[in-house]
Design a protein that fits this description.
- The complex is a heterodimer of chains A (246) and B (390).
- Chain A is 45% helix and 2% strand.
- Chain A is mostly helical.
- Chain A is elongated.
- In chain B, the strands form two sheets. A four-stranded antiparallel sheet of chain B has the order 3-6-5-4, with helices on one face.
- The chains are: A mainly alpha (246), B mainly alpha (390).
- Chain A: GO terms for molecular function: structural constituent of ribosome.
């Protein structure tokens, strides 16, 4: 419990140095807590007392973590300029120090489906899931560039970088949109232009004059207009079916 | 054109006199030389001598591929055919044969200006990597390989076509009012026969109100991409071609990528193609970044656009900065070819100027940045004098 508290406290220290002083105060109080509880006479009170304090501290830590997430949500590319990023990764790519855990020498050809299911995060999460500040966005060009091979210009496979399949899919989509918007450069195929006729003289694309009957203002088909029946024909038919007519 | 039937039974088309109307050569892009002879000329006179007929026929056949009508006329004149000349003969060709992009003279000049930088044409591109191959060659074989590479580079630097904007298709084939309201959607019928060129493919659309019309150009392009997908082309145009994204890309100096993508995505006579090319050339001209396109297939198109809009100054200044005097001279001669009625063109024609004199005349007459051009010319002459002296 104390160790997890310490971890969260150090995390908070790293994230927001401005309140690290107050956190250190909390930390010192935390460390003093067990000693105080040992000395106190009522054992059943002090756990509740410490748990209360610990719970409130945990809530605060979670709140501060979400605040950090929200900070980079609108401008994810700011994180790659920040000190904590440089301290954690330096100039090497985000996936450089990640190692997958698998049995045997040859890793499975597909990485895991996803690292985060609901609230639970797996053990040894992939390079993108383990750092909540890394957000895949099509404008976050520096991050996307880390996942593209500098020699071939193709997206690196997940077996190489270690990212989970869900993040790999998001990466592919982000890289495609970035290339679409022109933020990332890519190799464009060469187009041959010889052997094409651009005169547009064929009937398929040229203009065909309408038939002369239409230009006179007539209907397209003769029977669209008024059709008057032939009197003789009508009389013949009437005579034939006289028995059935009223 | 009047057809003259000889006793052999052949039909020969003879041109002796050019008409006053412009002659539009058939744009047979890349189809090579066929037996097509130019149409739309009216001849009034006919050569009656059989010998003259024979020579004229041979000469015409030999220059059937040439789009410049002037030359054929001059050859005929020289062959001694008896013609009944009228006064308008001389003025006709020079006034009305506006040089087209496809003319061989124009293409020559543009290829010369584009130059051939093997390092830039064969710069490494990002592609699937293979293990390298090593070849042991003698010096001769190496030279041959370099020659082959130069030929291949010339093919790669082939200029994409510059065409006028295509006219919209709005032909109604049928109006079946009986089908009005039968369905809520349009039906597009495409002919997917494999062996026909896309420009001869029939694509028609049945509207919900019953009219059967030919598909518009945009619909045609989209449907042909659906049934015959082309590599690199997308159904919806990349968002790179929107204004804001274009600005960003231009600020990154990636004009060549934009033009390549435009070639892949759009047809050469579509409005978007022309708009994007215009925007790119304008941006290049504004910032003077002509060198980005030098030794690529787009340089010729850019030079042609600048010459047609009479804004060659920036390009000439850039050439003089890089000490490409011959290129500058050829550019000015192209300008005179395209605008023969401009002051500098007339003065150059009267003085029969060549070389640096052309540049001087242009700088004095038509240029807006004459000061710089004259300075550069003086500097060049000084260095030339020093070089000859030492």
């Amino acid at each position: 419990m104390a160790t997890s508290m310490k971890y969260i406290a150090t995390f908070i220290c790293r994230v927001s140095p401005s309140i690290s002083h107050s956190v250190r105060q909390y930390q010192s109080r935390l460390q003093r807590l067990p000693a105080r509880t040992c000395l106190s006479l009522s054992p059943f009170i002090h756990p509740r007392h410490s748990y209360c304090k610990a719970a409130s501290l945990q809530d605060e830590a979670v709140a501060q973590a979400t605040e950090a997430l929200a900070r980079y949500k609108d401008r994810p590319w700011d994180y790659l300029e920040s000190e904590e990023y440089i301290e954690r990764y330096g100039s090497s790519p985000v996936w450089a120090d990640y190692r997958r855990n698998h049995k045997g020498g040859i890793p499975p050809q597909k990485t895991r489906k996803t690292c985060i299911r609901g609230d639970k995060i797996c053990g040894n999460p992939c390079p993108i899931c383990r750092d909540p500040n890394i957000i895949i966005h099509h404008q976050n060009v520096k991050l996307l560039q880390q996942f593209i091979s500098p020699h071939t210009g193709m997206v690196l496979d997940s077996t190489r970088t270690g990212v989970c399949m869900k993040q790999q899919k998001q990466l592919n989509e982000a890289i495609n949109t970035a290339q679409d918007h022109g933020l990332l450069s890519f190799q464009i195929p060469y187009v041959e232009f010889s052997g094409e006729d651009y005169s547009n003289s064929h009937d398929a694309v040229g203009s065909t004059p309408p038939p002369p009957s239409l230009t006179l203002g007539d209907n397209w088909y003769k029977w669209y207009g008024e059709i008057l029946p032939d009197e003789n024909e009508v009389a013949k038919v009437k005579k034939k079916y006289k028995a059935y007519l009223k | 054109m009047r057809k003259q039937q000889t006793n052999k039974g052949d039909f020969i088309l003879i041109f002796v006199e050019l008409c006053k109307h412009t002659t539009y050569p058939m744009i047979t892009w890349g189809r090579g030389f066929t037996s097509k002879v130019e149409r739309s000329c009216r001849t009034d006179e006919v050569i009656t001598k059989m010998a003259a007929l024979g020579t004229a026929r041979c000469l015409l056949r030999s220059c059937s591929g040439v789009k410049n009508v002037q030359r054929s006329k001059q050859i005929l004149m020289r062959s001694g055919a008896r013609t009944f000349c009228s006064e308008t003969q001389d003025k006709a060709a020079t006034d009305h044969a506006k040089p087209q992009f496809t003319d061989s003279a124009v293409q020559d000049i543009l290829t010369r200006i584009t130059s051939l930088d093997l390092q830039k044409v064969y710069r490494p591109i990002k592609q699937e990597l293979k293990p390298p191959t090593y070849k042991l060659m003698t010096d001769e074989q190496l030279e041959q390989a370099v020659e082959l590479a130069k030929e291949q580079a010339k093919k790669l630097l082939q200029m994409p076509p510059v065409l006028p904007e295509r006219k919209p298709i709005s032909d109604v084939l049928c109006e079946d009012k009986i089908l009005d309201g039968m369905d809520t959607a349009k039906y597009a019928f495409t002919d997917i026969t494999y062996n026909i060129p896309h420009r001869e493919r029939f694509i028609v659309v049945r509207e919900p109100n019953g009219t059967l019309r030919k598909a518009t150009w945009e619909e045609r392009d989209r449907l042909i991409q659906v049934y015959f997908p082309k590599e690199g082309r997308k159904l919806t145009a990349p968002l790179l071609f929107k204004e804001e994204n274009l600005k960003l890309v231009f600020s990154q100096d990636r004009h060549e990528d934009v033009l390549d993508l435009c070639l892949v995505q759009f047809e050469p006579d579509s409005s978007e193609y022309i708009k994007i090319h215009t925007a790119t050339y304008e941006d290049l001209d504004k910032h003077g970044k002509y060198d980005l396109l030098r030794s690529t297939r787009h340089f010729g198109g850019m030079a042609w656009y600048l010459v047609n809009t009479r804004r060659v100054d920036g390009l000439i200044v850039d050439m003089l900065k890089r000490e490409l005097l011959h290129d500058a001279v050829s550019l000015v001669s192209l300008f005179h070819m395209v605008h023969p009625h401009s002051e500098s063109a007339r003065e150059a024609a009267s003085q029969q100027a060549t070389g640096t004199d052309l540049l001087k005349i242009y700088a004095q007459r038509d240029s807006q940045r004459s000061g710089y051009i004259e300075l550069a010319l003086q500097a060049y002459e000084q260095t030339a004098v020093e070089g000859s002296a030492s």
